[in-house]
Amino acid sequence: MRAYLYDNLDTDCREPHEQNPSVPVSVEELEASGVLYWKLKDENFEAQIDKICADRNYKNRDQITVSKEGLGELFDAKIKTFFAEHLHEDEEIRAILEGTGYFDIRDKQDRWVRIKVEAGDLIVLPAGIYHRFTLDTNNYLKAMRLFKEDPVWTPLNRPCDENPYRKAYLEAIEAN
Fold first, then answer.
1. Where does this protein hold Fe(2+) (predicted)?
2. pLDDT of amino acid 43
3. Number of domains in the chain
4. How far is residue 58's CA from residue 99's CA, in Å, rounded to a whole number?
C-alpha cells in the first residue's frame, strides 16, 4: 500500500494522479483519518482474514471482480458509480486478492489522499468517510468484501454532511 496526496487534475482517474513533487501520506496519517490497513503476509490469506474477521466481528463476506469481463456491459457505469464521491453508513472493508486499484479518501483537511492497493492489502474505511474507488490502468481487481452483518452497500453521494454517520465520523477524528 502506498498513499499520497492526489493532484486533482481532470484526467483519466485510473492514472496515478501523484503530485509533483510527491507528498506521501503515512499509515499513521491514514489512521488519523480513521483508515485501517493490514498487509496480508502470503498468498494464503484465508487464515489472516479469518483472524481479522473474528477480532473485528465481521460475519459475512463475498467476492467481487472489477473488470470488463467480470462486470460485462455494466463495467463503465459501475466504475463511474464507484468513483463518485460518497460515504457509507457502515465500514467498507476490502481484502485485495488479485490486481490493483485506488481508494481515494478525504483526509482531516478535506484533501484527497490516493491509496494504491494491490494483492495482499486489506483496508478498512470507516463509516461516514468521504471516499471513492477506481481501478488503475490494468483494469482488473478481485477483492473480498467483508461485512459486520448482511451485505449492504449503499453509497450516499456528497453532500450529505447532515448524515448522522458523517457527524459521528467527524467527531471521532476530531478526538484523535
1. 86, 88, 92, 131
2. 67
3. 1
4. 23
| 131 assigned to a ligand binding site | yes
- Grid coordinates belonging to 105: 479518501
- Residue 17 is assigned to a ligand binding site: no
What phi and psi, each to the nearest 5 degrees, are found at residue 138?
-75, -15
Q: Tell me the backbone φ, ψ of residue 175, rounded to 5 degrees.
A: -70, -20
**What is the phi-psi region of residue 99: left when phi exceeds 0, alpha when psi lies from -120 to 50, beta otherwise?**
left
The range of the structural domain enclosing residue 65 comes to: 2-175
CA 92, 95, 101, 103 dihedral sign is: positive
CATH code for the domain in which residue 35 is found: 2.60.120.10
Rounded CA separation 92/169 (Å): 13
pLDDT in tens, 8-67: 999 999 999 999 999 999 999 999 999 999 999 876 788 899 999 999 999 999 999 999
Q: Kindly report the number of other CB atoms within 10 A of residue 148's CB atom.
A: 15
